[in-house]
Amino acid sequence: MATPNKEMAQDQRAEIIRMERIRRDFHVGSETVHALRGVSFSIREGEFVTIMGTSGSGKSTLLNLLGGLDVPTAGE
Q: How far apart are CA 32 and CA 73, in angstroms?
């Protein structure tokens, strides 16, 4: 369990990335593929983050959104 001082220090670090309720849908023929469904997270200054998941879970889609190479269907 973190000490109160450590928790306070983490809260004071600047939030550098935040995504809220991100959805990304693709239309393939008459079908809709839901690549991301309501993903929310934030990353604070100094944090190290990994993105893990099975094949087809939306990792590349998420990275494309973070890198500005794609736009979400919904969310902020």
A: 12
